[in-house]
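Protein modeling request. Please complete all fields; requests missing the sequence field cannot be processed.
Requester role: graduate student
Desired output: 3D structure, token encoding
Chains: 1
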Amino acid sequence: DRSERIRTYNFAQGRVTDHRVNLTLYSLDEILAGGVDAVIEPLLAEYQADQLAAIGD
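Delivered output (57 residues):
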């Protein structure tokens, strides 16, 4: 569904929220400067957990 929010960038608060993994970070400047590891790592962990759960089913 294209109407689902994936990520919200709030420049006034310096906040990034990734709605897929319920992650909120207050380091928007750092993320925009290339420090996306703080966003990618929780996404990878969620993906890996989903893959392991699928194997167990």
